[in-house]
Amino acid sequence: MLQKYERPTDLQEMRKRIALRHVDFPRKAGKVLRFAIEHPADTAFSTISHLARQCRVSNATVLRLPGLFGFNSFHEFRELFQAEIRRARRWD
User: Are the C-beta atoms of 30 and 9 separated by less than 8 Å?
Assistant: First the structure.
């Protein structure tokens, strides 16, 4: 069974956990997570199917990833990225 992690409070915390190798995901889920971290604006407004196509994985892989990271839904996962975009715009 895959380990579930506590939900990060922001994108910086998510990046820090990944950098410190405090997270371990299946290969395909990791592929989606890398894309999400590298392309936060795309992730913030993407659909499950669009993100799956971008990462060349199944919709189910994208749908499962947020739960592994402590989110209750893909919508909550996207909200983390949307909040990051809003924060960045305030500092521009």
Answer: no
